[in-house]
Write a structure and sequence with these properties.
This protein has one domain. It is an alpha+beta fold. The longest helix has 19 residues. The protein has a five-stranded antiparallel sheet. Helices cover 43% and strands 17% of the residues. α2 crosses α5.
Length: 137
Amino acid sequence: MNRKAHRTANLFDWTFVRDALKRAMSSGTKQVLSPGPTKESLDLEISVLINDIFGGEILEARNNKGRHFYNRVNGECIDIDEEEIYNSSDVINVADIPVSRSDKPLDFKREEYSDFFLRFIRAFEETVGLEDNYQTA
């Protein structure tokens, strides 16, 4: 399914999430992960963030480069590394396994994750234009 067809088929546009993630990651004064984030640990941190906010499940795939984490939310694979969002029935490999956060040690510090989480929320609100429409208590 191409991006335009996806947008008309669903109400939520995941490009907002990608844009907000880019802004949240670039606005941090420290590295998102410490020390020296790896691609794998960054995948996991982003997948945890998506899971915390949008629900669904975290999936782990193994390839020749190591482990890769992505999400499935409401039947859609959400892989921030990919340009397209696609229906999970089209692409889920039987070798891709759900990740239980209680079984998987998180490779990042909770304080840094909390900071990243809040930066993402602010960036997402700005991206979709919510910051002008409401006030927090």
